[in-house]
Amino acid sequence: MTSLDNSTEHRLKALLRDVPDFPKPGILFKDITPLLADGDALRDAGAAMAQPYRSARIDRVVGIESRGFILGALVARELEVGFIPVRKPGKLPALKTSIEYALEYGTDKLEVHTDACDRAARVLVVDDVLATGGTARATCALMERLGAEVVGLSFLLVLEFLRGRDKLEGRRVETVLSL
Amino acid sequence: MTSLDNSTEHRLKALLRDVPDFPKPGILFKDITPLLADGDALRDAGAAMAQPYRSARIDRVVGIESRGFILGALVARELEVGFIPVRKPGKLPALKTSIEYALEYGTDKLEVHTDACDRAARVLVVDDVLATGGTARATCALMERLGAEVVGLSFLLVLEFLRGRDKLEGRRVETVLSL
What we know:
The structure is a homodimer of 179-residue chains.
Chain A: H1 6-14, E1 17-20, E2 28-31, H2 33-36, H3 39-50, E3 60-64, H4 67-79, E4 82-86, E5 96-102, E6 107-113, E7 122-130, H5 134-145, E8 149-158, H6 164-167, E9 173-178
Parallel strand pairs in A: 3-4, 3-7, 7-8, 8-9
Antiparallel strand pairs in A: 1-2, 5-6
Helix pairs in contact in A: 3-4
């Protein structure tokens, strides 16, 4: 957890919205759009996600499509570094490398430009929510294939009961909110 | 055009990359990822996109999925307001409204939460590139259906030869770069 003061944490958490049965029956979805819509909360969330890494000499922030683009851009801005999009298949135009990873049923794929960063660049992986951790783990592996050093990951929210931290064992995982 | 000084404009433009034959043969794609990857350029692009609207009393920035999320978040941060994602079908969890619009072949669809903003909110629509203008026009119509006032649009880049401004006639259109 970051050193976010309790009142800010409480205020941000109050802006999450529970949506039952999304994306499928039985799932209680944590909707971050009310938090994004609040200017103060948006600023505070970006700053809090960046905070643990301010002295970590990050070269680039890696954002995972699509909600990771919103928060990743803010974290990049806070750390005064560039932004690398990790995208769904077919979206990136130039030479790229891809990784396939397992979902509950079937597989998914993520891509990054092969020249997205220098070899040995120190990168921070950002997404909105750490759920099962599959997407985040694949993103780390993808960046390491480029030669990057994944210094850590930063999430707005971790859903602890899904045990996503287990999939990221040995990596530095920071989160602003935890449920 | 914004009052960006010439050297900044030149520097940002030099960070665009031409990718031939993407997404299909004969198209010369303008890839903004080298610009996003540069920390100074990312900051300057966000500031320049926000600049024309600093005195426009914007309540919310609307970003169009997916690259509009990156720049939209930065512009929202610059203007110190909240962010509204306009998304592809099936991504938003809560009650939403959608708009279908024509592509060169077929149609596409965008969605927004019905409670994304107050009625009469003053919103700024942000995307990376103004091409044919179909997506931007549909986004404006979608927001107006919620009762919002679309104060204007801000793009990083306009491809003038595609005449997207024609589709946005009567609206305020600002762009940092123009090709």
